[in-house]
Amino acid sequence: MKQLTLAVFLATCVIAPSAGAQRNELTGILGRTFVSDQGIQGAPAYDSQLRFGKGLTFEVNYARGLLGGPLFSLSAEVPFVVNVDQDLHAALPIRIPDGYKSFIATPAARLNIFPVTAVSPWVSIGGGFAHFSPSSDLLFTGKNPNPTGTTTGAVEAGVGLDVKVFKEFRLRGEARDFWTGVPQLNVPTGKDHQHNYLVGVGIVWRFGGNSRSF
Question: Where are the domains of the chain?
Fold first, then answer.
């Protein structure tokens, strides 16, 4: 994970400055983050699940075109994702936080197909870091005795579709999987990694450079 993160970051830093004639892109996404339920080790078998809500999530994404043509384009992008409230729930009265916030940044390479047409599908892969900040309140009552933040590596893989709506603006729908470590939730689940699935829609603004290069 660390090697992939370093490779993508170095590629972005080295290649992007040589692409001054290419287009820039700024994107805002609103969506939800989905995390699969996890079993709580040692809890009664009849209801041992730690359940995750559907966290309201914002993404800001900057991209710069590196290579372009009528068939495909390659861009370096940096999605920065903030999940403002990932709720937690368990049937048992255990001392878990009532939720957490997460912050994820993963420099990535994105490949668009038919980038100059009205509809352009794309795929993305990259790596970076994630930080989880648990709530200071417990799920049932009281204050969290261990509100410890957790920072881990993160690997990103995503797919999406850009649709031209007006001049330099596109509508984007996307789904990204951020594979990260796990937050500190005060209970053992036996997990050391989790998938954070972001599904969202938003607006893309393209600016600068040659309009057919990106």
Answer: 2-14+25-39+47-207
